[in-house]
Amino acid sequence: MALLQVNFLSKTLGRTVPMNVILPVDKLSIPGMPVKENKPFKTLYLLHGVLGNYTDWITGTNIMRWAEEKDLAVVMPSGDNRFYVDNPSGHNYYGEFIGKELVEITRKMFPLSNKREDTFIAGLSMGGYGAIRNGLKYHDTFGCIAGLSSALETESIVKRTDESPLCFLNRSFSEGVFGDLTKLIDSDMNPKWLPRKRVEEKANIPKIYMACGDQDMLLEANRDFKNYLQDIGIPVTYEEGPGGHDWDFWDQYIKKVLNWLPLENNTQGINSGNVGI
Fold first, then answer.
1. Which fold has domain 2-152+191-275?
2. Which of 17, 21, 184, 223 could serve as a FRET partner for 10 with CA atoms 20 to 30 Å apart?
3. Are the C-beta atoms of residues 10 and 77 closer than 8 Å to each other?
4. Distance of alpha carbon 137 from alpha carbon 85, whole angstroms
5. How far apart are CA 148 and CA 132, in angstroms?
6. What's the pTM value of the predicted model, to 2 decimals?
7. Side-chain half-sphere of 45: how many Cα atoms within 13 Å?
8. Which residues of the chain have pLDDT under 70?
């Protein structure tokens, strides 16, 4: 399994940005067993949460081992604290970066499939919001969306003040990310606006998976969004389980995400620390 750190100049962000890439290219074949077909990798674009960066999923979960077992490429960019949306202030086009530029440039760099049905997006907390928002916005690119403990709090964001000791819960921070909060609800940054729009357009909507811990402060927001999707006719696979807003939960459920994705049966082989998988 190759773990690569890549830095490249992003046109949408106007600066050099980092990402980690898991690329399962070095699995050794077991004599007598079928050899993996040499074809482009199915790919998961995996987004971190607030206060995190492109290293979070590697340090917090077993995503490397599970991606290796599934022959899945995983691309993990940095989204800073910008919620993966576009804001012209400071040239912060994080939505276009995630939904368009990152996909295009990684397909140039690596042997990744260019098929919609082989291209997936997922994330946790802020990254869960970013996956759902950009997966629906760029629905022609992504075949599946997964959100873990997703920060789907658009309706509460517009009511924020500057009284919280946590910067990312303050109104001024939210205005720096989303712009004029009075326009937020009726925009593509509202996760409820996008699916309704896609239904009206009769668009090909990606398959959606959601999960949240039963002790997570975002549980009610996730339940509400799940119910909303079902009410407007969008199927969603939804799970709750023991846990809070923490890496123990995300480590367990990112494996469930990989099991849910339309991946082929893994090929047996030998790699670092794993024999016979």
1. Rossmann fold (3.40.50)
2. 184
3. no
4. 11
5. 10
6. 0.93
7. 35
8. 29-36, 265-277
